[in-house]
Q: What sequence folds into this?
């Protein structure tokens, strides 16, 4: 359910999250109204605002921890794409020092890999269906052909070694972005945030029991703050998914190969 929501556009995510948070606030407002008409209201009203401090600290620490990890994942996602593109670009440049047939073989392998990433690999990753078990075409064949070449000169030997390292680096960057695409905030962590939000809202309703306008205003303010935090978390949670903040393969698309 959460993964389905995170796959939506940012506007849809915001509407659903804000609506849910306000719904929880309305429920707590109703509970507070029911308590105010009951004889237990006097005991409930004895709840002190100091109760909000530990609850707020716990909720704040949890959201801060998740936010730091989520934004770090966005930066890492962009870094992995840039690393993959840089390694491929390096392989293309270094291949110019090889004989024509070997250079064409490497270019064809890279071209095949780029087509695979754009048409198959990236859409599958956005949909959450990509697997590390699938061997990407193009680069492994180019690497095999490169290693089978018997370089005669020291310059060719150096280029051969560096190209092999660049291709291996590109494949490693692909593995890293696939692993990162599978990382997300767990359902348990989302539930913990929702439970803390409900507890704080309930505490606010208990503190202001009998004062309906004050209760409504405080519940609205806190629910708005929580909803804003949840929206930020959700739209940044999966940078390689189809919703929210999406890291695009622009760095890979900007690579230009000589005509086949």
A:
């Amino acid at each position: 359910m959460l993964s389905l929501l995170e796959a939506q556009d940012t506007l849809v995510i915001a509407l659903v999250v804000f609506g849910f948070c306000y719904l929880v606030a309305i429920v707590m407002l109703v509970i507070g109204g029911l308590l105010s008409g009951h004889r237990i209201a006097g005991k409930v009203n004895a709840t002190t605002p100091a109760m909000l401090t530990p609850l707020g600290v716990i909720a704040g620490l949890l959201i801060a921890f998740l936010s730091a990890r989520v934004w770090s994942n966005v930066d890492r996602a962009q870094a992995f794409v840039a690393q993959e593109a840089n390694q491929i670009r390096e392989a293309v440049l270094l291949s110019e020092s090889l004989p024509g047939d070997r250079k064409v073989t490497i270019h064809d392998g890279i071209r095949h890999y780029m087509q695979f990433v754009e048409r198959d690999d990236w859409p599958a990753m956005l949909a959450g269906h990509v697997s590390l078990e699938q061997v990407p075409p193009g680069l492994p064949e180019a690497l095999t052909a490169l290693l089978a070449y018997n370089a005669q000169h020291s310059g060719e030997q150096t280029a051969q070694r560096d190209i092999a390292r660049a291709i291996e680096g590109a494949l490693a960057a692909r593995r890293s972005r696939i692993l990162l695409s599978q990382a997300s905030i767990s359902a348990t962590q989302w539930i913990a945030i929702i439970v803390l939000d409900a507890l704080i809202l309930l505490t606010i309703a208990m503190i202001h029991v009998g004062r309906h306008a004050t209760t409504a205003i405080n519940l609205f303010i806190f629910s708005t703050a929580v909803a804003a935090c949840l929206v930020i978390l959700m739209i940044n949670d999966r940078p390689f998914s189809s919703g929210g903040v999406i890291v695009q393969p622009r760095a890979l698309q900007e690579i230009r190969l000589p005509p086949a």
The chain has a mean pLDDT of 87.
